[in-house]
Amino acid sequence: MPEQSPIYRVAVPSPLYSHFDYLPPAQSREKLVPGARVRVPFGRRAVIGIVLAAADRAAVAREKLRRIERVLDEQPVLPQKLLALLAWAAEYYHHPIGEVLAAALPQWLRAGRPGEAPGVEVWRAAPGADPGALKRAPAQRRVLEALMAASDGLEAETLAALTPRWRAATGPLERRGFVARTQRPCLPPYREPAEPGPTLNEDQRAAVEAIVAGFDSYGCFLLHGVTGSGKTEVYLAAARAALARGRQVLVLVPEIGLTPQLVARFERRLGLRVAVLHSGLGDAARYCAWRQAAEARTAVVLGTRSAVFTPMPDLGLIVVDEEHDPSYKQQDGFRYSARDLAVLRAARERIPVVLGSATPSLESVRNAREGGYRLLGLPERTGVAALPAVRLLDMRRLAADEGLSHPLRTAIAERLARGEQSLLFLNRRGFAPAWLCRDCGRVAVCHRCDARLTYHHARRRLICHHCGAEERPPEACPACGAREARALGEGTERIEAALAKVFPKARVVRIDRDVTRRQGALEEQLARVHAGEADILVGTQMLSKGHDFPNVTLVGVVNADQGLYSADFRAPERLMQQILQVAGRAGRADKPGEVLVQTWHPGHPLFTALVNHDYESFLSYALSERRDTGFPPYSFLALLRAESPKNGTALEFLRAARASAGAPAGVEIMEPAPAPMEKRAGRWRAQLLVQSTSRKPLHAFLDRWVPALTALRQARQVRWSLDVDPGDMY
Ligand SMILES: [Zn+2]
Ligand SMILES: [Zn+2]
Asked: pTM above 0.90?
């Protein structure tokens, strides 16, 4: 009897909760390796899948199996360790394995491109090339002379800056043997020696020593350092120690924090080229950096959320900076937490992971308080002033014009007189969050969402911030015909306008999504601030991330109350984190800062803690509140969401889902409810919360429930998704 060929389990990018079995390609005798890409027929299409394993036996009859069309990789693109982590994540987040693997792969590989890293073309002058022979070809001569002066050769970009006709010039030069074209790896070598850093203070040194002592075994360190305490110096020192042992280092940062300055700082201080991975890169550049890391040709990866999936064979240390940042949680598709997976990856690879933050999340704090994580504290600021004094402005007693109270205006005027900068923080872009008829009180709402339209004055538009719908403000009220409308409340645009009126000579710079949409615009605005070309900054939470403003001596929080009484249980935690982060960006050694907070609820415990710079007491207050209400970190959640263009359909699906759940032990299943914003972008949304005080029964239940959901008749009428450990409740 002829030996039967093996069957291969392949993960294909599809929303189906399963892998698929295939026969090997017709001619192939070689065994396929798990983690390699294959091209397989799927339905009527051909798709790129990943080999998971070989098997003797298929789930269906062998005759029904189709053949793998083509094998794309001899070596796995996803090494075994990473494949196992991703398989675990697919189970934990209850997400189809094919989509999980696709999320981990760079687009370059997903598109089926060859696995070799794309290089960068470089031109070099050949020995003996003679510019004197090019008297009648000035463009060729210029190119050749430039190449002769550059010992490392020049890239297309540099040549294009030299002359727009460089392509026409290099051809004949190449044919004459005067220049040669070569490929250089996408990361150019770094030739400078590592720069020494500042001397570490005692707390920083103790933190580094603790991390280094834990090399070669798993340990999770929560580095809680106040803003300005020099957390990055701890990362750098720990990274240097890992590099000295020949290990690789993975550093995760929130999207907006990954600035060219940060990359340059790591390269300067570590004396090597850092592989940078973020969503703004082109496919080739991104894959190239990924590949360098995968082949251990670069020791340090600095990246955003999905960089947690970068293959790194010699990985020895993971750092997650600003671990509290919500951007670590993927909000659609495969809804993973990069921070949580970083901790898990460290545990599986038996290496230390450092979670750093000035305002750590309640989840991490609880882990540290109960001994799961080791707490490392940096209570002192380095090189900057003491923490700024915080004063509450009780808006119940103060008049405000266009959102600015008298004490806040006076404080700004003082800074202007002294030539110092002020920063106003307000988490609402646009001119006004409501457009109101003065006669009948009608407020303009979005037709596709349960939301008010925001008035944008510069564009004279009412815009929905949830679905992007926009319209011209009506001349007359559609309800009563009155022609008197009023923009109610304040957004960043209105504060900017109010400041221009009150302080006509002041230079105001606004930083929010509206003004920074264009690529490079944020950097331009920040450069103006740092060059001293701005007196007042107005901005949203974009100001709370990654940028320091040493000349700012006044921070005004225009409306601190958003989030105090929100439907989302995490809102107060986020609010506190944002205010502390913004406040911490201001001031330096010789110019201490001041923070003024406008609030209608000055008695709220959050503000008491803020005034006292007592994050610990806020944490204790917030943790006890979470314990009383049974929310994370004292319980584990899964949120089943559904939406449909038809009213009622989403709720109907959730009722069926609720009925199919039965009464599992140790798990509480709530009643289906409309989402806090029931209608969004023309779809009706509803959700069903599942809660448990421990992970085990929750996941045992989900293991049974999710396949049952896919089988429900109502599932075909809605778009549904399961969010394990949801980041927000919307
Ligand atoms: Zn009206
Ligand atoms: Zn809308």
From this structure: no
